[in-house]
Structure prediction request, 111 residues.
Amino acid sequence: MARLLTCSLLLLSLTGCFRMSLRSGAPRGGAPEEQTGVSLVAGLTTSNVVTPECQHGFSRVDVYWPWWGPVVFAATFGIVTPLRTEYVCAEAAEAAGLVPPEPVPSSHSPL
Prediction:
């Protein structure tokens, strides 16, 4: 019994954490917002950040497991993993005083 408990605690301690951050360098256009989603079947599918209020893209995006995420992951044997996404919308280039970049030409000719 002690061996099973020790192995269980060791296994739970190895779950680790997950965090991914993206910084675009664009100026912030507001306060941070949050969305909660799921990743299914050990990350084969994941939730997308759909934000109609961010018309000029993102300034910052952080994706991470909430504190209770490893418990759900273990209880569902890795089928469901909750993810929390925190994002900040980018400010319009004109409002920030930036010059919009020139469009990049396509490197492949259309078929």
DSSP finds three helices and four strands in the chain. The chain has a mean pLDDT of 79. The first strand starts at residue 19 and ends at 23. Residues 42 and 71 are 14 Å apart (CA to CA).
